[in-house]
Amino acid sequence: xxxxxxxxxxxxxxxxxxxxxxxxxxxxxxxxxxxxxxxxxxxxxxxxxxxxxxxxxxxxxxxxxxxxxxxxxxxxxxxxxxxxxxxxxxxxxxxxxxxxxxxxxxxxxxxxxxxxxxxxxxxxxxxxxxxxxxxxxxxxxxxxxxxxxxxxxxxxxxxxxxxxxxxxxxxxxxxxxxxxxxxxxxxxxxxxxxxxxxxxxxxxxxxxxxxxxxxxxxxxxxxxxxxxxxxxxxxxxxxxxxxxxxxxxxxxxxxxxxxxxxxxxxxxxxxxxxxxxxxxxxxxxxxxxxxxxxxxxxxxxxxxxxxxx
Amino acid sequence: xxxxxxxxxxxxxxxxxxxxxxxxxxxxxxxxxxxxxxxxxxxxxxxxxxxxxxxxxxxxxxxxxxxxxxxxxxxxxxxxxxxxxxxxxxxxxxxxxxxxxxxxxxxxxxxxxxxxxxxxxxxxxxxxxxxxxxxxxxxxxxxxxxxxxxxxxxxxxxxxxxxxxxxxxxxxxxxxxxxxxxxxxxxxxxxxxxxxxxxxxxxxxxxxxxxxxxxxxxxxxxxxxxxxxxxxxxxxxxxxxxxxxxxxxxxxxxxxxxxxxxxxxxxxxxxxxxxxxxxxxxxxxxxx
Lengths: 309, 288
Fold this sequence. Notes:
CATH class of the largest domain in chain A: Mainly Alpha
Structural class of chain A: mainly alpha
Number of domains of chain A: 2
Largest sheet of chain A: none
CATH class of chain B: Mainly Alpha
Helix content of chain A: over 70%
Strand content of chain B: under 5%
Number of domains of chain B: 1
Oligomer: heterodimer
Shape of chain A: globular
Radius of gyration of chain B: 24 Å
Largest sheet of chain B: none
Number of strands of chain A: 0
CATH architecture of chain B: Orthogonal Bundle
CATH architecture of the largest domain in chain A: Orthogonal Bundle
Largest interface: A-B, 98 and 99 residues
CATH topology of chain B: MetI-like fold
CATH topology of the largest domain in chain A: MetI-like fold
Structural class of chain B: mainly alpha
Number of strands of chain B: 0
Distance between the termini of chain A: 19 Å
């Protein structure tokens, strides 16, 4: 692309504004939203490099350099929550990424239309609930008098106080995440499945491929772009995993396994008031998230030719 | 050509999908059963799918709490105002972004999309909302989440799919760009507007964290924060040595009732709105 001369560029802008000023005016309020509520907070991260005291200057009092970053990097409890984040994020990815694919493939084999629709309608349902409601349901189901313990005592096992057991937290979290997201997660795959050319199946059939080989050689490659896109997006949100739900489900007894970066910085920042320290952790998390999504996207583009943009 | 192996698969598939349906529905039925059960029966671990010691006293009790209704009204108010603001802003920006010939369009799209992958984080947002003086106002709920970029892209994709000739004809007839949007485009966009309305309304109805973070006074809480405090109180109660078991158990049945009442409106409209969500997600997936 050749660069237009500055004057030419200005003139074109002037012409564009003269012609489309009504369109530009429609963009003013939304742009104001993005600038104030999305980009200002990004700049607000300067408090991670400055001494901030609540009630003082919004952007902090004076520069302290990387002091807060050094502080959390030398803080064993940060590394504890960092490890928890990786484990919970990894487990979530391990279960919540492939299971919708499996369910979509199974649904795709259902030939009875109303039956397929019925299963879809039921499985989407948990997606529409508030996370508070989900947490409330989870706490009741795994409570000492809940159905899970009823099952355990029925087979002669002692009841387990799941909510107080650090060893159970990840299981409970990931199970509830599967329960809430797997059905809804099938939608994009089901959409991709309908776009696969029927001729490909015919050709595979002529080549003597059975259903299983057809699935392996036609169906899965057909939904690969969707899989890669969702994988890249999942990897990008890896570190931000489960903030609201963990905030609702965890308690001091389960913090050793439940506490993740986002919940930790919430407690350190909002609850205890160490804004700069928490902002430094938050900035660290955001930057890693951005690096992860860019890296995953580049890898995906190079390996399978699918890119988010 | 149905092989024996495929027939076996179909049986297994039917069993797996039945399990999926049962596992998905079980917790709902369980919560409803608990909400109609007596405290003693819940406490002794006898309530699974059928209410034991059936009563509607707990419902009476929860519904007689005026704070519950105050917070429920707040949820309705917040949802209505936030959805209205979101729809207007999203529609305006999506329409602008859908104009391929517009100079600076790429930049305007980039400004929105970048925010999907990088955000300021909790603390700067909190400082911002506090220093704008939005704490303890409705605007702390409405403004920070006014535009959802995914919804924006879905709507942009829809506007791009409209035939260009329509708007060209309107321009030839001397309609302004405002007039074209208002009189030509929006009447053709009722389906997508309905979808957006539902996307936003459900997400604001369900949201709790903004209310939890920015509202300090109980009479301002949405009902999700009411429920959250109930749950948190109950779990905190378990932590301490429970001196009064009955108090704890009242909390359990009250929790169940409050959960049911909070999700009831969504459950009632769910069968009717579900397909709009699905079509909206697909539209976004194709283009976004």
